Amino acid sequence: MSGLGSVLHDDQICNDGDADGKPGSVSMQIKTVQTKEYQDQRPGTSGLRKKVKVFQEPGYLEHFVQAIFEAVPEHPGATLILGGDGRYFNRQAIQIILKMAAANGWGKVVVGQDGILSTPALSHLIRKRKALGGIILTASHNPGGPEHDFGVKYNISNGGPAPESITEAIWAASKSLRSYRIADTQAEIDIKRIGNQQLETMTIEVCDSTADYIAMMEGIFDFNHLSDLLRSKYFTMRYDALHAVTGPYAHALFEKHLGAPDGTVVHGVPLEDFGGGHPDPNLVYAKSLVNTLYGEDAPDFGAASDGDGDRHMILGRQFFVSPCDSLAVMLAHADLIAHYHGQVKGVARSMPTSQAVDAVARDLHLPIFETPTGWKYFGDLMDADRVTFCGEESFGAGSTHIREKDGLWAVLFWLSIIAETQLSVAEIVSRLWQKYGRYYFSRHDYESLPTEEASQMMSHVRQQLSDLEGKKVGDTTIRLADDFRYQDPIDGSVAEHQGIRIHLADQSRIVMRLSGTGTTGSTLRFYFERFIDRPDALHKDVQKTLQPLVEYAYGLTQVQQISQRTLPDVIT
Ligand code: G16
């Protein structure tokens, strides 16, 4: 047996042509290539994310893709959807995966034109084409380019991220695999031309990246009404695609279909390195949009999405909508959209997401579910029709139309609320606060900490949890401190250690956990939430309002002393 990358043996597969090999029968050389041992391919919060350079190591990507195929043994003859956010290495990875899919017996792969599909569009296609699953190439909001990040995620037949049972099976396979299978051809597969082609026995369908998604949006929202809003001279909007995947979708949706003026969508050309920025729609990384909305002659409405199009940020004129409030607003106004009128079954939010949406759900007598961070935990609640909306503090919200969060859907939802109510963004949110009180919310991230250091800080707090009850935090006290454990109400599976929760007596909370999406060291996230319902205190400065909670959590973890940093890297 020779070394890494060597061909171990060739074999052949045949199509369903004549058994005696008469014309119609085609064959393909498959090579089985040896790889080395990998112990680092455990999927995180959302697939496997690593530096591009790691994925470019010979055999690394192939090994992980083979592990995915091993974890779904029912794949022979089935359909796979394939696409990515267009980041650096996207196109090379698509070529490799197509050749591996053919060698592993998939019946058909539907690939977005030029390898492009947003995460929501891919989720929709899995459902529409009744595919067994899909592979999405993205590291979401992480930066792209040769020095930055890449990622691979497997979604299952409901269109959603693979649940832990499958991600753990992928990881197990990755640890025991020693080889992968790939079609033995150097030929470049044409993924630019829409239509069907054969890679020997496997059909490759190159599809329009945006058409199906836009048709789905048209089925949910009233495009005539939205068009009236976007064509009106009394309403102005800016959408920043951050040079990521939503550019073509947003140009088609807002400007072509809904008639917004050209120029409504900015940074709409997807670039492999996102123009050098972080494709992360928040106050820090979407700075240019924020400056526009807070500047003179600001438009009425601003929005942005992330690298793969599943996140959203909403801005009004000089007004930022916290993603937690965005979810609460959507639930509170769902009846204004015919598609959801009277149809809402319940709502789910990730544990660190503020309780603003809980207040709305209680008022509407709807069930509310609190899940660990990660969209994968929402899938079976949606499949079981227990919830209609889901959302997270990390700028994600979605509904049962797919099984992923959906950035442009959220923007259309907000535009629909504005079209129906004729209120500004600030008025819509202020009314929510007046009715339910305000859950002041902010997340502080300490990024790329040495992993050991970050884990020690978390274990140190875990050890003290039982002693925290009754301790003072600002002018309130700790009611309960625990380590979040989730038991899935549908399949009974249990997820332990999903983050530390410190509940305060006045409904406020401090949460801390380690991120599962970073690629360098560990990122420690603090989530601060303070509930205030005094009518004269609904418009205070967020960071000042949360200061007592911040001081307490920083003291408890000693994060500033241990990390030698006086400030977090990102505050959202
Ligand atoms: C992913 C997950 C989200 C999660 C976010 C942040 O989003 O799908 O559920 O909230 O990561 O996760 P963490 O706090 O572990 O870094 P995306 O948009 O990155 O795919």
Radius of gyration equals: 24 Å
Low-confidence stretches: 1-26
- Average pLDDT value? 92
Which class best fits the helix and strand makeup? alpha+beta
Globally, the shape reads globular
| DSSP strand count | 28
Q: Estimate what percentage of residues fall within beta strands.
A: 25-35%
Q: How large is the count of helical segments?
A: 17
Largest sheet: 7 strands, mixed
Instruction: State the end-to-end distance.
Output: 53 Å
Major sheet: order of its strands?
3-7-6-4-5-10-9
Structure, briefly:
With 572 residues, this protein is an alpha+beta fold. Helix 2 (60-71) packs across helix 5 and helix 10 packs parallel to helix 11 (356-363).
Descriptive notes:
By secondary structure, the protein is an alpha+beta fold. Helix 2 (60-71) crosses helix 5 (164-176). The N and C termini lie far apart (53 Å).
Features of the shown structure:
single chain; disordered N terminus; globular; binds 1,6-di-O-phosphono-alpha-D-glucopyranose; alpha+beta; 572 residues
Set down the secondary structure blueprint.
Elements: E1 7-14, E2 27-34, E3 48-51, H1 52-56, H2 60-71, E4 79-84, H3 90-103, E5 108-116, H4 119-128, E6 133-137, E7 149-155, H5 164-176, E8 179-183, E9 195-199, E10 202-207, H6 211-220, H7 223-231, E11 237-240, H8 246-257, E12 265-266, H9 287-294, E13 301-304, E14 313-316, E15 319-321, H10 323-332, E16 347-350, H11 356-363, E17 368-371, H12 379-383, E18 389-392, E19 396-399, H13 407-421, H14 425-436, E20 438-449, H15 451-464, E21 472-473, E22 476-483, E23 486-487, E24 494-495, E25 500-504, E26 509-514, E27 522-532, H16 542-557, H17 559-563, E28 570-571
Parallel strand pairs: 4-5, 4-6, 5-10, 11-12, 11-13, 16-17, 16-18
Antiparallel strand pairs: 1-2, 2-8, 3-7, 6-7, 9-10, 13-14, 14-15, 18-19, 20-27, 20-28, 21-22, 22-25, 23-24, 25-26, 26-27
Helix pairs in contact: 2-3, 2-5, 7-13, 10-11
This protein binds 1,6-di-O-phosphono-alpha-D-glucopyranose.
Residues 45-46, 140-141, 306, 310-311, 350, 373-375, 392, 394, 396, 515-517, 525 line the site of 1,6-di-O-phosphono-alpha-D-glucopyranose.
